[in-house]
Amino acid sequence: MIGCQQKYLKPETVLDLFTPEEVDDARRHGKLLSMELELTNACNAACKYCYRFAAEGPQPPSPDELTLEQIEGAVRLAHSKHGLRSICILGGEPLIPSVRKKYIGLLEVCNELGIRHLTVTNGLFLTEQTVQTLHDLKASVCVKLNGMTPETHDSLVGVKGAHNKSMEGFNRLISLGYGRGNKEYQLAFETVIVRDNYDQIEDMWVWARDRGIIPYVETLTDQGRGAKHMKELQVGNEDLRKLFERINEVDREKYGFDWDITPPIVGGHCSRLYTGLYVQATGTVCPCAGVDMHLGNLQKQTVSEILSSPLAKVTRNIGDHITGKCRECDLSGTCYGCRGAAYQAGDLFGEDPVCWRDVGK
């Protein structure tokens, strides 16, 4: 344990892949360092806070999803021409059996090109065989964990027994060397802060840190299925501030980590708009998951054509266009707030409605 009197360190996270200098270089030279890539719209869970789907219940695949050949072509071009270094693989659910061939093919391409990759999963398919496949493909993994109790997790995921499956998945991954500070086989958990799990977040954080699991905890956005449940799920800004401050204190005193206390990510800043693109399963490209603003479609355009569009140039330099307290904030050099929250509130460039900070403090 690192004592709190020692120099504090910034924790490594699954998001902070690039240094501030690399982010600035990507902005100035139009590089595409990262992609968030959906493989399918199919999902066997029904998370109440889902940002992606408004319809209730598990979701089917779309008939016009990108093929492996289309995905591979986009990845190879992005890597050779625009410096792609990292891919976050999402769903729906990327481990669903119907897209297994596409998933394995993508990871093989990433490994060939030396592209770092992270698989985000709801944990329902983490069998011994699947976990071994993930290990063989050198996949870093982020597993859904919404609470320390089955009641909380299962209620939010909408699947009975989901908590047990996620915990079994964590144990199987750890037994193969994941977590425990292993930088090659990183292991993370992901959750969204809602009223149901608010009082469990701190325990989840400590549980993860003690096992070398990276915590990825973020605020709720007013979109998809989450928009339909906002009144029952949303945590107020003042309570969010208190939670962020408590976890910061835990990180400083118990683990020797320190970080800026700002939403939407506990312990980290988002630089997605500066360095990456979000690709939906059907090829539609957006600035990020929270900003459903269409920049183009990979079934009709190349990555290069999409990056050169006037709208992409604006969103990838979002810091030059934001207004209100986000523009005047003393942390504006490293933080642009949550552009998804601002966009869902009606103004992509407006101040983050979830941020509690007073300008200059």
Keywords summarizing the entry:
361 residues; alpha/beta; 15 helices; globular; disordered N terminus
Describe the structure.
This protein has 15 helices and nine strands. It has 361 residues and is an alpha/beta fold. Helix 2 packs parallel to helix 3 (100-113) and helix 7 runs parallel beside helix 10 (237-255). The two termini are 30 Å apart.
Task: Describe the structure concisely.
This protein is α/β, with parallel strands linked by helices and 361 residues long.
Topology (elements, then pairings):
Blueprint: H1 20-29, E1 34-38, H2 68-82, E2 86-90, H3 100-113, E3 116-121, H4 128-136, E4 140-144, H5 150-157, H6 162-175, E5 187-193, H7 201-209, E6 214-219, H8 224-228, H9 230-233, H10 237-255, H11 272-275, E7 276-279, E8 284-286, E9 296-297, H12 303-307, H13 310-315, H14 324-328, H15 339-344
Parallel strand pairs: 1-2, 1-7, 2-3, 3-4, 4-5, 5-6
Antiparallel strand pairs: 7-8, 8-9
Q: What is the number of strand segments?
A: 9
The major β-sheet equals: 9 strands, mixed
Low-pLDDT residue intervals, each spanning 5 or more residues:
1-9
Please write the string of helix (H) and strand (E) elements. Answer: HEHEHEHEHHEHEHHHHEEEHHHH
Strand content: 5-15%
Structural class: alpha/beta
Radius of gyration: 19 Å
The whole-number mean of residue pLDDT values reads 92
Percent of residues in helices = 25-40%
Shape: globular
Strand order of the largest sheet: 6-5-4-3-2-1-7-8-9
End-to-end span in angstroms? 30 Å
Tell me the number of helical segments per DSSP (H or I, 4 or more residues long).
15
